[in-house]
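From the methods appendix. Each design record in this collection lists the tokenized structure first, followed by the designed amino acid sequence. Records were kept in a plain field format so they could be parsed without special tools. The example shown here is representative of the layout used throughout.

RECORD:
FOLD TOKENS (416 positions):
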């Protein structure tokens, strides 16, 4: 609401405001105050006339003042539930509930200015409904998985080649400008400073107080200094995972874990793709095994690419996972379960065919991960594609989707 009021006021000052400046500063100030008060009143009335509720296994939301909009969403389409608390909301004890649904970029539902307790109880109720349980089911317990020490976060973010290089160049420009007395040199320091703020201070503030836990209703993530966030990813929503290991992080033995999460699209997908910002390597593989039950990502043997490619390129396939490793300076390991791969492609251009090599891609739902194995022998690539297609068909035919996962497990237990 404050952001909407500020946005309307700024637009007024930027567009009709200059035309009205001729009436004098007093009139201009009064009109600006009137616009700000009017937009505040409209936002308050719109919020006051908004309502929501649960009807069986549907979430019903009514919004709008002049243009009334009603939405009724089956919770079987629920993909993720986040509780977000910007700094002002933390001070006021409020929270915003963000519900991600299957269905594209316009499927997100935001319930703003809820009490913190109300938001967390509604989150638990939505997750229970999505699992096929009663909305009055108590919140599922959780087990600690990983708490990120602030010192490790600080050191890992600083211990990267782009950050170190930008910082050294910034110091050199400052020192050079002072030494020669030429302030124009300092102008080049401003873009570097902005880059450092985005690449270092931004992630530092975002992932401060990071805590991850495991629960029957999914992976729970809590993080943020100025915008506290509680993110819950229900079981089966993670489609692919990658481990990012910059060159300097190898001495620390840590990686970053990212994922393609079903339901998040566009900018929200990129904003929510990091599952663990900095974590020891063995814990990263442990999380992958939790996200994809019955797998052992660390145990998949990797085979190097054909000659002519970097020594880091490799591919591994077992009965459950497609694992591709690439990169020399920044090592990336991409992991896709066969059941989550939407398609498997083998591509080979004219030059690649002359060299007898091909590229194998495992396509997944939209996200930052594009699992690809380059430099594979043509015969090997064909065997891999045929094998993954067979494994994927078997995995999908023997397992159901992620909807109502709790009741399915209960039914299976009764049958056993």
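DESIGN:
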């Amino acid at each position: 609401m404050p952001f909407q009021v500020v946005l309307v006021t700024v637009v007024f000052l930027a567009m009709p405001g200059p035309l009205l400046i001729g009436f004098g500063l007093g009139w201009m100030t009064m009109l600006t105050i009137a616009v700000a008060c009017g937009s505040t009143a409209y936002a308050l009335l719109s919020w006051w006339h908004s309502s929501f509720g649960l009807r069986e296994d549907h979430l019903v939301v009514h919004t709008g003042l002049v243009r009334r909009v009603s939405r009724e969403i089956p919770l079987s389409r629920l993909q993720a539930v986040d509780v977000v608390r910007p700094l002002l909301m933390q001070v006021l004890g409020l929270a915003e509930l963000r519900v991600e649904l299957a269905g594209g970029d316009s499927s997100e539902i935001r319930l703003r200015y809820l009490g913190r307790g109300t938001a967390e109880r509604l989150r638990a109720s939505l997750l229970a409904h999505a699992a096929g349980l009663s909305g009055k089911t108590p919140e599922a317990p959780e087990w600690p998985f990983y708490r990120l020490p602030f010192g490790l976060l600080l050191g890992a973010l600083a211990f990267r080649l782009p950050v170190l290089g930008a910082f050294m160049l910034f110091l050199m420009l400052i020192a050079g400008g002072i030494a020669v007395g030429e302030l124009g040199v300092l102008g080049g320091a401003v873009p570097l400073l902005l880059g450092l703020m985005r690449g270092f201070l931004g992630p530092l503030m975002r992932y401060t107080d990071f805590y991850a836990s495991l629960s029957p209703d999914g992976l729970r993530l809590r993080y943020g200094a100025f915008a506290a966030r509680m993110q819950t990813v229900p079981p089966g929503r993670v489609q692919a995972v990658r481990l990012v290991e910059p060159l300097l992080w190898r001495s620390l033995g840590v990686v970053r874990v990212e994922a393609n999460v079903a339901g998040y699209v566009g900018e929200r997908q990129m904003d929510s793709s990091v599952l663990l910002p900095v974590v020891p390597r063995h814990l990263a593989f442990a999380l992958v095994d939790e996200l994809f039950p019955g797998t052992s990502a660390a145990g998949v043997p990797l085979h190097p690419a054909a000659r002519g490619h970097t020594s880091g390129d490799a591919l591994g396939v077992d009965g459950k996972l497609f694992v591709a490793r690439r990169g020399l300076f920044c090592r990336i390991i991409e992991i896709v379960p066969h059941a989550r791969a939407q398609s498997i492609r083998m591509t080979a251009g004219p030059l690649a065919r002359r060299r007898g090599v091909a590229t194998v891609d495992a396509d997944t739902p939209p996200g930052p991960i594009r699992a690809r194995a380059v430099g594979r022998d043509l015969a090997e690539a064909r065997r891999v594609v045929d094998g993954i297609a067979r494994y994927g068909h078997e995995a999908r035919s023997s397992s159901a989707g992620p909807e109502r996962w709790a009741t399915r497990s209960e039914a299976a237990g009764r049958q056993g």
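APPENDIX NOTE: The chain has 13 helices and 20 strands.
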